Amino acid sequence: MADTLEFNEIYQEVKGSMNDGRLRLSRQGVIFKNSKTGKVDNIQASELAEGVWRRVALGHGLKLLTKNGHVYKYDGFRESEFDKLSDFFKAHYCLELAEKDLCVKGWNWGTVRFGGQLLSFDIGEQPVFEIPLSNVSQCTTGKNEVTLEFHQNDDAEVSLMEVRFYVPPTQEDGVDPVEAFAQNVLSKADVIQATGDAICIFRELQCLTPRGRYDIRIYPTFLHLHGKTFDYKIPYTTVLRLFLLPHKDQRQMFFVISLDPPIKQGQTRYHFLILLFSKDEDISLTLNMNEEEVEKRFEGRLTKNMSGSLYEMVSRVMKALVNRKITVPGNFQGHSGAQCITCSYKASSGLLYPLERGFIYVHKPPVHIRFDEISFVNFARGTTTTRSFDFEIETKQGTQYTFSSIEREEYGKLFDFVNAKKLNIKNRGLKEGMKQSYDEYADSDEDQHDAYLERMKEEGKIREENANDSSDGSGEETDESFNPGEEDDDVAEEFDSNASASSSSGDGDSDRDDKKPAKKAKIVKERKPRKKQPESKKGKDPNAPKRPMSAYMLWLNASREKIKSDHPGISITDLSKKAGELWKAMSKEKKEEWDRKAEDARRDYEKAMKEYSKADSHRGERSKKKKKKQEKQVKGKGDKKGATSKSSSSKSPAKGMSDSFKSKEFVSSDESSSAESKKEDSEDEAAASPPPSSEDSASGSD
């Protein structure tokens, strides 16, 4: 037989709620680890007194009773696992695993039996229900009645708050059955009564959660926080962990108390009690006990008279009374030398402490994440600046925590820490080495943004090329014409010639004039069709037939109002999604009906396009004749201007250039008529050959 048995997804019943976790049975005893809190219950094999197997709501359950009266319940077993558990109990614990079913008769009259910390209501020999007396917060008596009130359970959707028992009177003299019932309950109930004197009192301590100044009174079984507005009584049994954390400024200390269940203030729940101390504040403390009692109870951990820093005294007293270790930061050291990292969580700035077995964030809201509940971590780029990054943690339950605005210099230290703890890093490839992934991330912090822009540019070019290829015109010509840099340079050169025309060098002017008309002629030949082509693409003829709709679009137009009436207030996006689902679920026969309608619409469109193309071809022939006529006029005008510019002075070429540039744009317009172009020719010729002045004749004689 195996020495150990392990079960996953087992539920432990604690104060009315079911906490899932893992159960392990070994020779030494029974260990249950809560998946939510990480708390471990360890039952030694020598302490086990009885084991009961029974049918419960979650399959089958195991109830263990110890010799000191404690009861532990674990549910979620399968019926087939009984034989395996029974043999294990016989072999290692020397116990018979008894089978006892609950009574389901529905009677409300029976007997009450007190066994250890359990109240059992039985009918005959079968239990109907059991109440752990540690759940009882108050017990009150009346005439023949006992009322039990319970602690509120925040984890359960429905919580039992009160149960009343009717206790019939008896004939026995001197014994009140109601009082006897109440005393049995109160002896085991979790009723906090501030009787007696406090062991010690700490005055006016600064508390961050819940916010305020509180006097802390230390009692043997609970902690009493007394403030101006609220009082809290915290049993030591609800303290889960203790943390002592140095502030980043090295002048203050955080003392954090983790609570389960949390303390309540109205609807607010505080899972952590956070105290803030100054390192310079000292205190002398005297316990309200004699030295023998101190030695007997605390076994040297505390003394009657103590002195030192205030945070040391509070943490030392709490450690002795709660009997739990105090967790401090490990060997992690950030970029600035502190043992924490400044970051933001939920739009509030705080400090993240990497511990030896988890992370803790203080202070608003406090968060503690254990390593064993982490599924993976992720290093992400900051959303607003490249000078910071985000640290994301996702738990096995699917909860995600994002700590943002971490300084970039902290990345190396934090990555090395996570790597050393062997946590899964999401943004590291499985086949890549540790050091390699670190270097890759460091490089991407510098260059990733630029690489992203380059990739977007390439994708944009590909989309443009595809769009141009699918259009009616020539794709190559469109790609060449869409080059604003070259076009601007050519225009700038033409306008620069005006400024150079004022130079006194006549030879230089004549050289420029010889070169630029040739360049100008090239522009007229190559760029005139390019300018027309985009205009023809952009302008759509309103008389052209509209493209036919697909079968889906025809169906959607017909069904849109029906979908809106079936789903009032539906948004446009939700309507589209719903329509897609309905179309997908539609039968083949119905789809074929809409396909036929779409085919008819396509035929009508093709017929209309043929008629439209015939009419368009006649318009195209007329425009071609007009275009040829305009080109002849431009060519004749260019010859006249070339001859005139050679015989003109240094001022006239500049004027001729500007006029020719203007006439080029004017002629390239589609709206100009042949009569207007003739008129413009006569005006340009008159402007190109003005009568020679005295200055011009003098320069010619020179």
Structure, described:
- It is a single chain.
- Among the domains are: 4-99, PH-domain like, CATH 2.30.29; 111-187, Structure-specific recognition protein (SSRP1) (PH-domain like); 200-327, Roll (PH-domain like); 341-421, Roll (PH-domain like).
- Helices cover 40% and strands 30% of the residues.
- It has 15 helices and 31 strands.
- The strands form 7 sheets. The chain has an 8-stranded mixed β-sheet with strand order 4-3-2-1-7-6-5-8. It has an 8-stranded mixed β-sheet with strand order 18-17-16-15-21-20-19-24, covered by helices on one side.
- Helix 6 packs across helix 7 (475-481).
- It is extended.
- The termini are far apart.
- Mean pLDDT is 75; it is low at 429-453, 472-526, 531-538, 646-680 and 685-702.
- Belongs to the SSRP1 family.
- Keywords: Chromosome, DNA damage, DNA repair, DNA replication, DNA-binding, Nucleus, RNA-binding, Transcription, Transcription regulation.
- One of its GO terms (biological process) is DNA replication.
- It is found in: Nucleus, Nucleolus; Nucleus; Chromosome.
